[in-house]
Amino acid sequence: MAFTPPVMDTDGCPHEGDGETLLADTRMALCRCGASESKPFCDGGHTEVGFEAG
């Protein structure tokens, strides 16, 4: 079987020949508020504690 490279869509997401999304989003953010359960990465906990960057 020959290797077929994934096809990139207009959003930059790679797809195999069957159209399945392999990787939809690879962005990540670091926690600045201290409320994240997945430190050092942000899990959106800042919305629950009302954190605002200032």
What can you tell me about this protein's structure?
With 54 residues, the protein is mostly loops. The protein has 1 helix and 2 strands. It has one helix at 46-49; strands at residues 7-8, 14-15. It has a two-stranded antiparallel sheet. A hairpin with a 5-residue loop joins strand 1 (7-8) and strand 2 (14-15). The longest helix is centred in the last third of the chain and has 4 residues, at 46-49. The radius of gyration is 17 Å and the shape is elongated. It starts with 6 loop residues before the first strand and ends in a 5-residue tail after the last helix. The model has no long low-confidence stretch (mean pLDDT 80).
N/C terminus separation: 55 Å
What percent of residues are in strands?
5-15%
Tell me the number of strands.
2
Look at the structure and give the mean pLDDT: 80
Strand order of the largest sheet: 1-2
Element string (H = helix, E = strand): EEH
- Helix proportion range: under 10%
In brief, what are we looking at here?
The chain has 54 residues and is largely without helices or strands. The chain contains 1 helix and 2 strands, in the order ββα.
Architecture blueprint of SSEs:
Elements lengths: L6 E2 L5 E2 L30 H4 L5
Antiparallel strand pairs: 1-2
List keywords for this structure.
54 residues, single chain, two-stranded antiparallel sheet, 2 strands, little secondary structure
